Amino acid sequence: MMKSEETLRLCRDALIRLDGDVMGTVVTCRKGVLWLTQTGNPGDHLIRAGEAFSIDGPGAVLVSALEDSAYAVSGGTGHLLGSERSFMPALRRIARLFETAKRSLLA
Predict the structure, then answer these.
(1) Residues in a beta bridge with 85
(2) pLDDT tens digits, one per residue of 63-104
(3) Most confident of 17-21, 43-47, 102-106
(4) Quick one: which of 36, 73, 40 has its CA closest to 57?
(5) Distance (Å, whole) CA 75 – CA 1
(6) Which domains does the chain have, with CATH numbers?
(7) Distance between CA atoms of 35 and 42, rounded to whole angstroms?
(8) DSSP label at 83?
């Protein structure tokens, strides 16, 4: 179960996953900028310091920091899985490879 309003830190490009029964969970950005995406939800969300995102449907939620950030998670009965992981460098490499392949196909 998630702790109520404990402020946590997330380094730039790091990633955490909220899993389980996440409906009703609120992610509040205390500092920085967070990017949230949810399984089954077609949109992504950016929240800045002082803003919050309320999860209103089922599905795991990924939270990534676009800069060094602080956040709080409250409500819901889901679980915060794993420690923060940096995935952005790998994602950027994949995007560069994709762009290179696209350019060679269009040439």
Answers:
(1) 15
(2) 999 999 999 998 866 655 544 445 566 566 667 777 887 787
(3) 43-47
(4) 40
(5) 9
(6) 6-106 (2.60.120.10)
(7) 14
(8) E
Residues 71, 10 contacting (CB under 8 angstroms): yes
Provide CB contacts within 8 A for 106, sequence distance 6+: none
The pair of three-digit structure tokens given for residue 61, joined into one six-digit string: 């939620």
Burial 44-67 (b: 16+ CB within 10 A, else e): ebebeeeeebebeeeebbbbbbee
Say if CB 45 and CB 36 are below 8 A apart. Answer: yes
Long-range contacts of 45-48 (CB under 8 A, 24+ apart): none
Residue 86 has a pLDDT of 53
CA nearest to 64, candidates 40, 88, 41, 82: 88
Q: At which residue do the structure tokens 């992610």 appear?
A: 27
101 vs 95: CA distance, rounded Å = 10
Q: Which helix (H) or strand (E) holds 80?
A: strand 79-86
| 63, 12 contact by CB (below 8 A) | no
